[in-house]
Amino acid sequence: MKKPYFTILLPLLLILLSNDMIGQTVKIRAYLNLVSGDSIKGYILAQRYLFDKKKAHESSYNKEFTLIDGSYKETKFNFKSINKMELIDLDGKIRIFVQKENFPRLLEVIYQNKVVWYKFHYYNWVNYSDEVVNYIFDEKGTEYNIGGFNSKKNKLIKFCKGNEKIIAFIKTNEMNDENILKVLKMYEMELKP
User: Taking the model in full, what pTM does it have?
Assistant: First the structure.
């Protein structure tokens, strides 16, 4: 009797679709500022993307992770014990993650001036991918959730509070990271000192 094809194909598909099943653990250089006031240097363990060797899953180290310090001691950390984490990612880029009240994991700081832009990275178990939601806080601390299940353009237009010059830029350009940063800087230039 022949085995149905799906008994062979299903495990194969699961392996190919899930980076967690065959993703490799990598060490990323990190510097932690703890809530206790202590600082630690070392390497955090993260999961690397299967098909992009220069990228690690942010969701594998922004909630709970293991740090290997200079004496090769492994210590497990939860995001609640971290004030700030600076790391050098697999591409050589310096990235900063901070704890912010009412968020269930560390947020990546993308831009910080009069307004602040954070990225919230989380793992989506439905489609086996890392997802990102952008959070922008205006000069008064008002939160704008951009991305995920809403339109970046519409949320940025709401953020700009009727500034027609910036709104025209938003409507005529794709709102990728580069252009979101331009919008934030344009917005700050319009603020009164």
Answer: 0.84
